[in-house]
UniProtKB/TrEMBL annotation, chain A:
Entry keyword Transport: yes
Naturally occurring in which organism (per UniProt): Oscillochloris trichoides DG-6
Full protein name: Binding-protein-dependent transport systems inner membrane component
Keywords annotated in UniProt: Cell membrane, Membrane, Transmembrane, Transmembrane helix, Transport
Transmembrane segments: 12-29, 163-184, 196-225, 261-279, 319-344, 364-390
InterPro entries for this protein: MetI-like, MetI-like_sf
GO BP, sorted A to Z: transmembrane transport
Domain ABC transmembrane type-1: 161-383
Family under the similarity heading: Belongs to the binding-protein-dependent transport system permease family.
Automatic annotation (TrEMBL), chain B:
UniProt-recorded name of the protein: Binding-protein-dependent transport systems inner membrane component
The species this protein was found in: Oscillochloris trichoides DG-6
Gene3D superfamilies according to UniProt: MetI-like
Bilayer topology term: Multi-pass membrane protein
Chief location of this protein within or outside the cell: membrane
Transmembrane segments: 34-56, 105-129, 141-160, 166-183, 190-211
Family matches, as PROSITE patterns: ABC_TM1 (PS50928)
Superkingdom of this protein's organism: Bacteria
Compartments (UniProt record): Cell membrane
Entry keywords, A to Z: Cell membrane, Membrane, Transmembrane, Transmembrane helix, Transport
CDD domains, per the entry: TM_PBP2 (cd06261)
Gene Ontology biological-process entries: transmembrane transport
Domain ABC transmembrane type-1, residue spans: 101-317
Family affiliation: Belongs to the binding-protein-dependent transport system permease family.
TrEMBL record, chain C:
Topological relation to the membrane, as annotated: Peripheral membrane protein
Gene Ontology MF term list: ATP binding; ATP hydrolysis activity
ABC transporter domain segment(s): 16-266
Compartments where found: Cell membrane
Biological processes per GO annotation: peptide transport
Keywords attached to this entry: ATP-binding, Cell membrane, Membrane, Nucleotide-binding, Transport
GO CC term (a single one): plasma membrane
Annotated family: Belongs to the ABC transporter superfamily.
Highest taxon above the source species: Bacteria
Major subcellular location class: membrane
Protein name listed in UniProt: Oligopeptide/dipeptide ABC transporter, ATPase subunit
Keyword Membrane among record annotations: yes
SUPFAM superfamilies per UniProt: P-loop containing nucleoside triphosphate hydrolases
C-alpha cells in the first residue's frame, strides 16, 4: 500500500510537470500567443500609438524578454529570483531586452528588417527586484492580466469557488441520492413499465447536450412562464441586483435567501438531470450484471429476504464500478460545468474559465486548467484507494 | 454457444459477416423502430446540408438592418418572406440554418473520420506489435485521455482560431474543404483547425477499443495457424482482425459522430470554435442567447436540429449495438 | 458399487414428490421448454442422482424445486410436495423459511457462488441468523464447528478470510458448511465437483458421503458424471431434453440400462484408469427446446430408431421404481 502510494505520487508529479509544460507551451510560447493579442488589442483601443518603451514594459511584465526555460522555471517554481545564492552567475545572460536589428536590402530594392542577435541582454542580476510568481506548483498563479488587472489569480478563484461548490456539490449529491435507488429499482424490475420509463428518460437525458437543456429550461420556466403570467424562475446569475415580483410568491428581495434559492434551482436542475441520467443507467447496468451472479442465487438459496439480497448482497457489489465514476466528480465539483454555468450566467469557476479565455486572461485560464489536471489525478488516486476499501479482492501493489 | 464474445470468433465461417449474418443484423435493426425513424431524421438533415447552397432562399451573409430579429413567417420591408425569420443582423435564419447544417454535420463527420483513422491505426499498431510500440501509444493515450477534455478543447480552439495561419494547410486540401463546406477559403481554414483540434482529442476511445480487439484476436489460435501458413502481417490484420472488430467499430463510429457534433456545438455556444460569418448551429445559439428574452424562437430554432440529430445518432448507435451484439444472437 | 437402495413404500418416509413439473423460459426467440413434465420421488435418507448432458434441464429442475428460477423462466405446471406441502403454493415468506433451512443447495462454481465482498464466516453466520436466530459469539461458535466439520483446519482464521483467498475446493467446503448449517432435510447439490480438480473432486465426494451418514439428509445430486452417480446415488433419473427418459435404482441402471440414451452414456463412460472425459461420445446434439421435435426427442441421435419414434413415447413403468420413456419397451410390457 505504502509503496503503491509513493509510486503513484511520483507518477502524479511527472504527469503534472508534463501537463504544466504542455499547457505553458500552449498558451505562452507558441507564435502569436496571448502577448501579440494583448499588444494588438491595446494598439486598437488606445488612441496614442505604442512606443518602444511601452513594448519593453509589456515584455518585461510578461517576461517575454527572458529565455523560455528561465521563464518557465520562474513560472513553475518561482526560481531564479536573481543571482544564485545571492552572487553566483550575476552576469549570466538569461534573455534579451531589445533584439538586434539587421537591415536586409534585396536586389530588387525591398528592405526588410530582420531580428538577429541581441542589442541589450538581460542577466540574472537584472532579475533581482523584479516581481516574480511564487511558483505555480506552490499555488501562486500570478496576477490576472485582464479581468481584475493586477490582482492575484487566486483571489479571483477564491471569490468564484463558493458558487461552484454549492451548485456542483448540491447537484452531485442530489444526483447520487436519486441515481442509486432509481438504477437499482429499475434493474430489479427489469422490463417493467417503471424500468421502461426510467431507461427511456435516462437515454434522452444522456443524449441531449447540456446547453440544450439549459436553453429549454430558461425558455420554459423563465421566459414562457413569465409571459404566461405564471410563477417563473429568474433566468441567470447567482444573486439578483434588484427586487422583483413573482406571481403567487410575491416580492423577492434581491440577495435574500429566497432569491438565491430560486436562482440556483434551474442550473442545479439541469446538472442533476444530466448526471442522474448517466449514473442511473450505469447503476442499472451494473446491478443487472450483479443480479445474474451466482452469489446472488446463493443468497436466495440461503433463504435471505429478497430486500436484503438486493440491498446487501447485490448493491454492495454493483456499487464497486460506480466508485470509478466518482473520481471524475472531484474535478467537476471544482471546475463546475463550463457550459451550464455559462448558459445560466453563474459566477462560478467554469464561467470564470470561459470568460478568462475569451478575454485572453491567460494566467487565470492556466491556473484553472492546472488545478483541474491535479484534481483529476487526485481523483484517480482516490478511486484506487476507494477500490481497495469496497472490493476486498483488490490489493494495491 | 449463444454467448461467445465478439473477440473470439466461433469458427472459420464466422470471420466475415456472411450474407445471412448481414440479414440477421438488418432484421434486428429494423425491429428497432425509433432507430429507423432516426435514420430518416438524420438523412433529412444530411440532405438539407448537401442541398444548402441550392435551396437556400437568400444569400448567406447579406445583412438587412431594416429587418432584424423578425419572427418566423414574417415578411420584411422589401417583401421578402422569411420562413424562420431573421437573425440579429437581419440575415435570413433559414438560409443560415441550412448552411449551418453543412458546417455542423460536416465538421462532426470529418472529425470522426480523422479521429477514427488515428484511433484504428494506433490501436492496431499497439495491439499487434506490443512491446515498446504498445507502451508508447498507451502512455500517449493515457496522457491525452487524462486531460480535462472541455477546457483543453476550448483553449486549443481559441488558440487555433486566433492563429489560423500558424499551421500551413496544403492548398488543395483547403480548396477541398472550402468546396465541401461551401465556404470561402479563409473560413474553411478555421473549420479545418477546429476539425483537427476535435480529432486530436477524440481518438482515444477508438484506439483503446481497437487495441483490445486486436489483442484478443491475436490470442486466438487461428492467427497462429495462418502465420504458420506464411501469411503476412498485413494479411493477418486484414483478414482476421478487421472483420471481428467491425461491429463494435461501427457502433463506436456512430457514437463518435454524436460526440463531435455535441462538442463542436458546445464550444460554439460558448463563443469559441467556428466563428461568424460561418454559421454553425452552435454559434447561432450563441448569438441568439442574448435575444432569448425578447425573441424566444431565436435560440429555439438552431437548438432543435442539434437536439434532433444528437438523439437520432444516439438511437441509431443504440439500434446498431442491439443488432450487432453477439450476446443477443441466437 | 454402493449400498443397496433403502427404498420403502411407506409414504411417511417420502420427503419429496415432484409431479408433472414444467419450467419454461420465455425468450425473444420463443418459449424454451427447459423442463417439460418430470416426476421425481425422493425418500428420507435417499440420494437421487440426476444425470444428463448440459442443457438437458437438470439444473433448472433443481432450481424449480427451490423456486429460484429467474426471469425469463417460470414454473408453468406441476406440483412439488415437500414433506406433504406443495412448495409451489407457498407464499414468498413461507418459501424463504424453507430455503437454506430445510432444503439447501450447493452449486457448481464454488468460487463464484460465494459473495466476493463478504468474509466467508459472515456468509455462514448469515444463514444461522436467518433461520436459527443465532447471534454474536453463539453464531460464530457454531460457524467454527461447521467449518471444522467440513474439514477446514484453523476455522478462526478461515472465518475472517474472503472467498478469493480460498481455493476452489476450500470454497466448496465453505458452501457445504453453509448448506448444512441448519441440518437440512434435503440437500440439492448441482454439479458440486465439476469445477474442481480430480483429486479435490474425490475429497469433496468423500466429505459429502461422510456427512450424509452423519446428518441423514436426503440428497439430490445433479451431475453429468456417471462415475459420481455410481459412487454416490441410490437411484438415478436420466434426463434428456427436458424430460426424464429413465428412472431406476443405481444397480439396475448400471447392470441393465434400458433407454438407448442411457446405454450410450454408459458406453461413453471411460474404463477405470482411463482419463475421464465429457459425455460427448453420442453423435449429434440435444435438440432445440424452443420447438422440440414431435415424437421421441432422442430419435435423431438414436441408433435403434423405428417408426413408432415419430410419436411421443409415454413413461412406461417396467417394474416397481423402474421407468423408461422409450417405444422399444412398449410391446414388451
Amino acid at each position: 500500500m505504502t509503496t503503491f502510494l509513493i509510486r503513484r505520487l511520483i507518477q502524479m508529479v511527472l504527469v503534472t510537470i508534463v501537463a504544466a509544460v504542455i499547457s505553458y507551451g500552449l498558451l505562452y510560447v507558441q507564435p502569436g500567443g496571448p502577448i501579440d493579442v494583448l499588444l494588438a488589442e491595446r494598439q486598437n483601443s488606445g488612441a496614442n500609438r505604442i512606443n518602444e518603451a511601452d513594448i519593453q514594459r509589456v515584455m518585461q511584465r510578461f517576461e517575454l524578454d527572458l529565455a523560455v526555460p528561465v521563464r518557465f522555471s520562474r513560472w513553475l517554481i518561482g526560481w531564479p529570483k536573481g543571482p544564485i545564492f545571492g552572487s553566483v552567475g550575476a552576469d549570466w545572460v538569461v534573455g534579451c531586452a531589445t533584439p538586434g536589428q539587421v537591415r536586409l536590402r534585396y536586389p530588387d530594392g525591398r528592405v526588410e528588417i530582420v531580428e538577429e542577435g541581441c542589442e541589450k541582454t538581460v542577466t540574472l542580476a537584472d532579475l533581482e527586484g523584479r516581481k516574480v510568481s511564487g511558483g505555480v506548483v506552490f499555488g501562486d498563479f500570478g496576477e490576472s492580466q485582464v479581468m481584475l488587472r493586477g490582482r492575484p489569480v487566486t483571489d479571483l478563484i477564491w471569490s468564484r469557488l463558493p458558487y461552484t461548490l454549492y451548485l456542483m456539490g448540491g447537484s452531485t449529491l442530489l444526483a447520487i441520492l436519486l441515481a442509486v435507488p432509481l438504477g437499482v429499482y429499475s434493474a430489479v424490475k427489469q422490463y417493467s413499465r417503471f424500468d421502461y420509463i426510467v431507461t427511456t428518460i435516462a437515454f434522452i437525458g444522456t443524449s441531449v447536450p447540456s446547453f440544450v437543456f439549459g436553453i429549454f429550461f430558461i425558455l420554459l420556466f423563465s421566459v414562457l412562464a413569465q409571459r404566461a403570467g405564471l410563477p417563473y424562475l429568474p433566468p441567470g446569475d447567482a444573486v439578483g441586483v434588484r427586487d422583483y415580483t413573482i406571481p403567487l410568491i410575491g416580492m423577492v428581495e434581491a440577495g435574500s435567501f429566497l432569491d438565491r434559492f430560486l436562482r440556483v434551482l434551474m442550473p442545479c436542475g439541469v446538472l442533476t438531470i444530466i448526471s442522474l441520467a448517466g449514473w442511473s443507467r450505469f447503476v442499472r447496468g451494473s446491478m443487472l450484471e450483479v443480479l445474474q451472479q451466482d452469489y446472488v442465487r446463493t443468497a436466495r438459496a440461503k433463504g435471505v429476504r429478497e430486500q436484503v439480497v438486493i440491498l446487501k448482497h447485490a448493491l454492495r457489489n454493483s456499487l464497486i464500478p460506480f466508485v470509478t465514476l466518482l473520481a471524475g466528480v472531484l474535478v467537476t465539483i471544482f471546475s463546475g460545468a463550463l457550459i451550464t454555468e455559462a448558459v445560466f450566467n453563474w459566477p462560478g469557476i467554469g464561467r470564470l474559465f470561459v470568460d478568462a479565455l475569451s478575454r485572453n486572461d491567460y494566467n487565470v485560464a492556466m491556473a484553472i486548467l492546472f488545478i483541474n489536471v491535479i484534481l483529476l489525478l487526485l481523483g484517480y488516486l482516490i478511486t484506487d484507494v476507494l477500490y481497495t476499501i469496497v472490493d476486498p479482492r483488490i490489493r494495491l501493489s | 454457444m449463444t454467448t461467445t464474445s465478439t473477440a473470439l470468433p466461433h469458427d472459420e465461417a464466422d470471420q466475415r459477416p456472411s450474407e445471412s449474418q448481414m440479414a440477421i443484423v438488418l432484421r434486428r435493426f429494423r425491429k428497432h423502430k425509433i432507430a429507423m425513424i432516426s435514420i430518416g431524421v438524420l438523412a433529412f438533415f444530411l440532405l438539407l446540408a448537401i442541398l444548402a447552397p441550392y435551396i437556400a432562399p437568400y444569400p448567406r451573409d447579406t445583412p438587412n438592418l431594416a429587418g432584424r430579429t423578425l419572427p418566423p413567417f414574417s415578411v420584411d420591408r422589401d417583401g421578402g418572406f422569411h420562413l424562420l425569420g431573421t437573425d440579429h443582423l437581419g440575415r435570413d435564419y433559414l438560409t443560415r440554418l441550412l448552411y449551418a447544417s453543412r458546417t455542423s454535420l460536416g465538421t462532426a463527420i470529418f472529425a470522426t473520420v480523422i479521429a477514427s483513422s488515428i484511433g484504428i491505426v494506433l490501436g492496431m499498431l499497439a495491439g499487434y506489435f506490443g512491446g515498446w510500440v504498445d507502451i508508447a501509444i498507451s502512455r500517449t493515450l493515457e496522457v491525452v485521455a487524462s486531460f480535462p477534455t472541455l477546457p483543453i478543447l476550448l483553449i486549443l480552439s481559441s488558440v487555433a482560431v486566433q492563429n489560423i495561419n500558424a499551421i500551413p494547410i496544403p492548398g488543395f486540401l483547403n480548396a477541398f474543404m472550402s468546396w465541401a463546406f461551401a465556404v470561402t477559403e479563409r473560413e474553411s481554414r478555421i473549420i479545418f483547425m477546429i476539425i483537427v483540434v476535435l480529432a486530436l482529442l477524440g481518438w482515444t476511445g477508438t484506439c483503446r477499443l481497437m487495441r483490445g480487439m486486436v489483442l484478443s484476436v491475436r490470442e486466438n489460435v487461428y492467427i497462429e495457424s495462418s502465420r504458420a501458413l506464411g501469411a503476412s502481417n498485413i494479411r493477418i490484420m486484414a483478414r482476421h482482425v478487421f472483420p471481428n472488430a467491425l461491429p463494435p467499430m461501427i457502433v463506436d463510429f456512430t457514437l463518435s459522430v454524436n460526440g463531435f457534433l455535441v462538442a463542436e456545438s458546445a464550444i460554439s455556444v460558448l463563443g469559441f470554435g467556428i466563428q461568424d460569418p460561418t454559421p454553425t448551429w452552435g454559434n447561432m445559439v450563441n448569438f441568439a442567447q442574448s435575444f432569448m428574452f425578447q425573441h424566444p424562437w431565436m435560440p429555439l430554432i438552431p437548438t432543435m436540429p442539434i437536439l434532433l440529430c444528437s438523439m437520432a445518432v444516439n438511437y441509431i448507435g443504440d439500434g446498431l449495438r442491439d443488432a450487432l451484439d453477439p450476446h443477443q444472437r441466437a | 458399487m454402493t449400498t443397496a437402495p433403502h427404498r420403502s413404500t411407506d409414504p411417511s418416509q417420502e420427503i419429496l414428490r415432484v409431479t408433472g413439473l414444467k419450467t419454461h423460459f420465455f425468450t425473444d426467440e420463443g418459449v424454451v421448454q427447459a423442463v417439460d413434465g418430470i416426476d421425481i420421488v425422493l425418500h428420507r435418507g435417499e440420494t437421487l442422482g440426476i444425470v444428463g448432458e448440459s442443457g438437458s434441464g437438470k439444473s433448472v429442475t433443481s432450481l424449480s424445486i427451490l423456486r429460484l428460477v429467474s426471469r425469463p423462466g417460470r414454473v408453468v405446471a406441476g406440483t412439488v410436495f415437500f414433506d406433504g406441502v406443495d412448495l409451489l403454493t407457498l407464499n414468498d415468506e413461507e418459501m424463504r423459511t424453507i430455503r437454506g433451512n430445510r432444503i439447501s443447495m450447493i452449486f457448481q462454481q464454488p468460487t463464484t457462488a460465494l459473495n466476493p465482498v463478504f468474509r466467508v464466516g459472515d456468509q455462514i453466520i448469515e444463514t444461522l441468523e436467518i433461520h436459527q436466530g443465532l447471534k454474536g459469539e453463539e453464531a460464530s461458535g457454531r460457524c467454527r464447528e461447521l467449518l471444522a466439520m467440513v474439514g477446514l483446519p484453523d476455522p478462526n482464521r478461515r472465518m475472517k478470510q474472503y472467498p478469493h483467498e480460498l481455493s476452489g475446493g476450500q470454497c466448496q467446503r465453505v458452501m457445504i458448511a453453509m448448506a448444512l448449517a441448519c441440518n437440512p432435510e434435503l440437500l440439492i447439490a448441482d454439479e458440486p465437483t465439476t469445477a474442481l480438480d480430480v483429486t479435490i473432486q474425490a475429497q469433496i465426494l468423500d466429505l459429502m458421503r461422510a456427512l450424509r451418514e452423519k446428518i441423514n439428509t436426503s440428497i439430490i445430486l445433479i451431475t453429468h458424471d456417471m462415475g459420481v452417480v455410481a459412487e454416490m446415488a441410490d437411484s438415478v433419473a436420466v434426463m434428456y431434453a427436458g424430460q426424464i427418459v429413465e428412472y431406476a435404482d443405481v444397480r439396475s441402471l448400471f447392470t441393465d440400462p434400458k433407454h438407448p440414451y442411457t446405454q450410450g452414456l454408459l458406453n461413453s463412460m471411460p474404463m477405470l484408469g482411463h482419463v475421464r472425459d465429457e459425455l460427448a461420445v453420442i453423435p449429434g446434439t440435444v435438440p432445440s427446446l424452443i420447438n422440440p421435435p414431435s415424437g421421441c426427442r432422442f430419435a435423431s441421435r438414436c441408433s435403434q430408431r423405428f417408426e413408432a419414434c415419430d410419436r411421443d413415447p409415454a413413461m412406461l413403468e417396467l417394474a416397481e421404481g423402474r421407468r423408461v420413456r422409450c417405444w422399444l419397451y412398449a410391446e414388451k410390457r
